[in-house]
Amino acid sequence: MSQLRPPAPEPRPARGAFLPMLFSGLVALIVIVVSVVFSFGWFVPVIAGVFFLGLFHYLAWGWWLGKIIRDDAADQAEEEKFWERGGR
Protein backbone atom coordinates (compact mmCIF):
# COMPACT_ATOMS: atom_id res chain seq x y z
CA MET A 1 0.00 0.00 0.00
CA SER A 2 2.83 2.41 0.79
CA GLN A 3 4.16 1.98 -2.74
CA LEU A 4 1.03 3.59 -4.17
CA ARG A 5 1.65 6.94 -2.48
CA PRO A 6 3.01 9.72 -4.64
CA PRO A 7 6.56 10.80 -3.82
CA ALA A 8 6.94 13.61 -1.34
CA PRO A 9 7.36 16.98 -3.00
CA GLU A 10 10.86 18.35 -3.03
CA PRO A 11 11.41 21.16 -0.54
CA ARG A 12 11.41 24.60 -2.07
CA PRO A 13 14.62 26.56 -1.72
CA ALA A 14 14.52 29.26 0.93
CA ARG A 15 13.61 32.64 -0.47
CA GLY A 16 15.95 35.52 0.13
CA ALA A 17 15.22 37.68 3.13
CA PHE A 18 16.73 40.81 1.64
CA LEU A 19 13.66 43.05 1.68
CA PRO A 20 12.55 42.24 5.25
CA MET A 21 16.09 42.85 6.47
CA LEU A 22 16.26 46.10 4.50
CA PHE A 23 12.96 47.31 5.95
CA SER A 24 13.95 46.29 9.47
CA GLY A 25 17.23 48.16 9.15
CA LEU A 26 15.44 51.20 7.77
CA VAL A 27 12.95 51.20 10.66
CA ALA A 28 15.79 50.81 13.17
CA LEU A 29 17.67 53.69 11.56
CA ILE A 30 14.59 55.91 11.69
CA VAL A 31 13.99 55.04 15.34
CA ILE A 32 17.61 55.80 16.21
CA VAL A 33 17.59 59.14 14.33
CA VAL A 34 14.31 60.20 15.96
CA SER A 35 15.65 59.17 19.38
CA VAL A 36 18.82 61.18 18.87
CA VAL A 37 16.91 64.27 17.74
CA PHE A 38 14.41 64.20 20.60
CA SER A 39 16.79 63.23 23.36
CA PHE A 40 20.13 64.82 22.60
CA GLY A 41 21.05 65.41 26.23
CA TRP A 42 20.86 61.87 27.56
CA PHE A 43 20.97 59.59 24.53
CA VAL A 44 24.74 59.26 24.28
CA PRO A 45 25.22 58.38 27.97
CA VAL A 46 22.45 55.76 27.71
CA ILE A 47 24.08 54.17 24.65
CA ALA A 48 27.46 54.25 26.40
CA GLY A 49 25.89 52.64 29.48
CA VAL A 50 24.33 49.86 27.39
CA PHE A 51 27.69 49.30 25.68
CA PHE A 52 29.58 49.06 28.97
CA LEU A 53 26.90 46.80 30.46
CA GLY A 54 27.32 44.50 27.47
CA LEU A 55 31.09 44.64 27.88
CA PHE A 56 30.76 43.76 31.56
CA HIS A 57 28.54 40.78 30.76
CA TYR A 58 30.97 39.61 28.09
CA LEU A 59 33.89 39.81 30.51
CA ALA A 60 32.05 38.32 33.50
CA TRP A 61 30.04 35.57 31.84
CA GLY A 62 31.91 34.99 28.61
CA TRP A 63 35.56 35.21 29.54
CA TRP A 64 35.82 34.80 33.31
CA LEU A 65 33.09 32.19 33.81
CA GLY A 66 34.18 30.35 30.65
CA LYS A 67 37.71 30.10 32.06
CA ILE A 68 36.37 28.70 35.33
CA ILE A 69 34.24 26.12 33.48
CA ARG A 70 37.17 25.04 31.25
CA ASP A 71 39.48 24.71 34.28
CA ASP A 72 36.84 22.69 36.14
CA ALA A 73 36.34 20.39 33.13
CA ALA A 74 40.11 19.84 32.88
CA ASP A 75 40.31 19.02 36.60
CA GLN A 76 37.39 16.62 36.28
CA ALA A 77 38.99 14.86 33.29
CA GLU A 78 42.25 14.55 35.23
CA GLU A 79 40.41 13.07 38.21
CA GLU A 80 38.59 10.56 35.96
CA LYS A 81 41.93 9.44 34.52
CA PHE A 82 43.26 9.05 38.05
CA TRP A 83 40.37 6.76 39.06
CA GLU A 84 40.58 4.82 35.77
CA ARG A 85 44.18 3.96 36.64
CA GLY A 86 42.98 2.49 39.91
CA GLY A 87 43.54 5.51 42.11
CA ARG A 88 47.31 5.44 41.82
Q: Could you give a short account of the major beta sheet?
A: none
| Overall geometry | flat
Low-confidence stretches: none
Average pLDDT metric: 80
The total of helices stands at 2
Determine the structural class based on helices, strands and strand pairing: mainly alpha
What distance lies between the first and last C-alpha atoms, to the nearest angstrom?
63 Å
Strand content: under 5%
**What percentage of residues falls in helices of 4 or more residues?**
over 70%
- The number of distinct β-strands equals 0
- Rg over alpha carbons: 27 Å
| Helix-strand topology string | HH
Jot down its keywords.
2 helices; flat; 88 residues
Give a verbal description of the structure.
This protein has helices at 18-38, 40-84. The protein is mainly α. It has a domain at 41-88. The protein is flat and about 70 Å long. The model has no long low-confidence stretch (mean pLDDT 80).
Helix and strand topology:
Blueprint: H1 18-38, H2 40-84
Quick overview of this protein structure:
This protein is an all-alpha fold. Helix content is 75%, strand content 0%.
